Amino acid sequence: MLLILSTCFTHLFGQLTVSGASHGSVNSNYTLTTSSPPHYIVDAGTNKYRYSYQQQDFHHFFYIVRINNKWTLLTDSYYTDFGGGVWYYALNIDQNTSTDIDPPCTGIFDSYSGVYPNSQLIGVDNIIMTGATCIVQPVTSMASIISPFGISLPQMTTTQINAQANPTAGTVVWNSTLACLYVFNGTTWVCNN
């Protein structure tokens, strides 16, 4: 009876569904696992998620793990014919650092070409993870994020914006309440769509 309940809880609470990754094979259902990707050293004390599938002689393993305080979606693939071969590379790496034991429910992840060993940054993915174990981050972000593909402005509610004492003319933020670019013109905040 205990084993059955344990299995039910693992399947209910230990599963994440990923969407939004530009690598289509990353978008799938992951299950909590005790195994680690063999070619990476993951941060201790964190949960690891994995899914796998086999396509003819190719075995594909996809992981969600934290490496050096960055949540990473990666793959380990190998084939069994003709002496075997192994590919392993990171596909998406979170732009933010984390000390949480589970990955964020939403995040801006750098996307890599997935060509080992010279994987190159090719873009940015807004990845969404759904499940009982992902960590809900605050809706607002007070930091600007600069990447090779653009600038993410601070995201604040109208209340947070209006609480600023003496903002500088030309200050620009994303107003998450009104869903618009908010600019301080020296006198008042103006919503620009």
Protein topology:
Blueprint: H1 2-13, E1 15-19, E2 29-33, E3 48-55, E4 58-67, E5 70-79, E6 85-94, E7 106-112, E8 121-130, E9 145-147, E10 150-152, E11 155-156, H2 158-162, E12 172-175, E13 180-184, E14 189-192
Parallel strand pairs: 11-12
Antiparallel strand pairs: 1-2, 1-8, 2-3, 3-4, 4-5, 5-6, 6-7, 7-8, 9-10, 12-13, 13-14
Structural account:
The chain is mainly β and 193 residues long. It folds into 2 domains: 2-137, no CATH class; 150-192, Seminal Fluid Protein  PDC-109 (Domain B) (Ribbon). The protein has 2 helices and 14 strands. The protein has helices spanning 2-13, 158-162; strands at residues 15-19, 29-33, 48-55, 58-67, 70-79, 85-94, 106-112, 121-130, 145-147, 150-152, 155-156, 172-175, 180-184, 189-192. It has an 8-stranded antiparallel barrel with strand order 1-2-3-4-5-6-7-8. Strands 11-12-13-14 form a 4-stranded mixed sheet. It is elongated and about 70 Å long. It starts with a helix and ends with a strand.
How would you describe this structure in keywords?
193 residues; mainly beta; Seminal Fluid Protein  PDC-109 (Domain B); 8-stranded antiparallel beta barrel; 4-stranded mixed beta sheet; 2 helices; 9% helix; disordered N terminus
Number of helices: 2
- Rounded to the nearest angstrom, the distance between the terminal CA atoms is 58 Å
Q: Major β-sheet, in short?
A: 8 strands, antiparallel, barrel
The largest beta-sheet arranges its strands as: 1-2-3-4-5-6-7-8
Structural class: mainly beta
The total tally of domains equals: 2
CA-based shape: elongated
**Helix percentage:** under 10%
β-strand number: 14
Average the pLDDT over all residues and give the rounded result: 80
Cα gyration radius (Å): 20 Å
Strand coverage percent: 35-45%
Order of helices and strands: HEEEEEEEEEEEHEEE
Low-confidence stretches: 1-12
